[in-house]
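Next comes a single protein record:
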Amino acid sequence: MILHLSDLHFGTEKLACMAAIRLFCQEQQIEAVVVSGDLTQRARYIQFHDCKKFLESLNLPYLVVPGNHDIPLYHVWSRIFSPFTRYKLFFGHMETTLETEHFYIIGVNSIRRRYHTRGHISLEQIQQIDQSLMIAPADKIKLIVVHQPFYTPPNDSHGVKDCPMLGRMALESWSQSGLNGLLHGHLHQSAVYDLNQIYHLGAAHPVLDIHAGTATSYRLHHGLPNSFNVIHANADVQHYYFDEQQKEFVLKEENVE
């Protein structure tokens, strides 16, 4: 199984959630951890340092991608000319691939200086990911990790303004190359949608848009608790929510929409 964390927002982290995640990793058979962006609150050195230290403490392989909070907000010079310097200092390349026993996972950087909140996928990225998906082992679940979601429901207050530019084009291409799902954060709420049904992609299998809440931050949206996702080897997704009384993450059953 894969542990899907997102929106850690170090600088606003809750120690109880961090301890509960460590315990969960010790008790479960987890192949790897993925973090779909917003590792920090304000892209500060100490926040990246603390995030790195936490992920290393899980003693598991992990893959991360940047979120819009992982580039400087107030330091305009750095934001324009070197937005990812601190991210790369601690986490290296912004687009890496991780292969486990049951999963083939590709990280995609959707953050741009101009489109830092909404995000953007380039034509070059679409082509490169296509090639990676086509050479991935046929017997493994193929996942892409990218900060912004590729779908929000019509009644959602965020709407397309929080879906990356060229995201629909990328989805249509990647779905024909064997993509099974995309892992996102950004909205601080858990959900799963079958994009093959919503967009009529013509894929031979479901293509899931898997949203994660904030795993460790006290910056909670809409009164939702801290949460994370678990993706199983058969592509089933489970949401776990933090119980403040028990001080642990507990399973909540939900259905794909």
Notes: The first helix runs from residue 15 to 27. The radius of gyration is 17 Å. The chain has a mean pLDDT of 92.
